Amino acid sequence: MGTKMSLITAGLARTREDLRDILDLQRANLEGALSTDEVRAQGFVTVAHTLELLEQMHALAASVIARAPDGALAGYALTMLPACRGLLPVLVPMFALLDTLAIDGKPLGSSRFYVMGQICVARRFRGSGVVEALYHEHAARYRDRFDWLVTEVATRNERSLRAHARIGFREIARNRDAADEWSIIAWDLR
User: Fold this and answer.
1) 133, 149, 169, 173: which sits with the fewest CB atoms below 10 Å from its CB?
2) Closest Cα partner for 79 from 63, 95, 91?
3) Domains of the chain, start order
4) Cα separation of 86 and 57, whole Å?
5) Which segments of 17-169 are extended strands (E)?
6) Tens-digit pLDDT profile for residues 85-116
7) For residues 169-186, b (16+ Cβ closer than 10 Å) or e, as one string?
C-alpha cells in the first residue's frame, strides 16, 4: 500500500474482501444505524452500496482504503467516475447538477473530474489522520488522470465539512433535495 500516516497505510482496494470490509464499515455508519447524538457528533454516511455496485465502480477506478497495522479497515474513500452516473439512481440528480456547475469560470463537465462517492472512517480511528491519508492517496493515484475531485456533503454533517476544509476542498455550490441541503465541494488535484 502507499501513503502512511500514524501507522495507518492507505492504498487501493484490491480484493473482494476489501470491498466487503468497506460494506461492513458503511453499514455501521449509515445515518439510520446511528443515534441522533452520534450523527451530530461523529458524522454519518447516507448511501448504501452493494458488493456488485462496488465491483462495477472498482472496475472503472479502484477506491482507496486505509488499514491499521493489525489489518483492521480504518477507512475508505470511494472512487466514482462520471461513467458511474447511472449505477446508483439516488445519485443521478447530483451528476445532473454537476453538469451545470463551473469552477473558476470553466464548466465542470469540460474538466477532468471524478467524484468522491463516499468517505468513512471507523470510529476508533477518527482524529488519527485517516481522512488525510485517504485523500493524499487519492491525489497520488489519480492526479495524472484528473484535475478535480468533487463531492457533496450534507451541510448538517459538520464533522465531514470540517475534515474536507482541512484537506483543501472549497464549496462551489449548494443544493437542496427532499432529504437535505448539500454543499458541493471540489479539491484541486493539480
Assistant:
1) 173
2) 63
3) 4-188 (3.40.630.30)
4) 11
5) 64-67, 73-80, 102-103, 106-107, 113-121, 148-154
6) 888 888 888 899 999 999 999 999 899 999 99
7) beebbebeeeebebbbbb
**Predicted TM-score (pTM) above 0.70:** yes
* 114 close to 146: Cβ distance less than 8 angstroms: yes
> H or E element: which one contains 174?
strand 170-176
Quote the CA–CA distance of 94 and 62 in Å, as a whole number: 21
Asked if residues 81 and 87 have their Cβ atoms less than 8 Å apart, the reply is no
CA-to-CA dists, residue 112 to 1, 109, 135, 149, angstroms: 25, 8, 17, 9
| Cα torsion 67, 120, 152, 88: sign | positive
Nearest by Cα to 76 from 65, 63, 68, 88: 65
Q: What is the pLDDT of residues 159-187, one digit of tens each?
A: 889 999 999 999 999 999 887 899 999 99
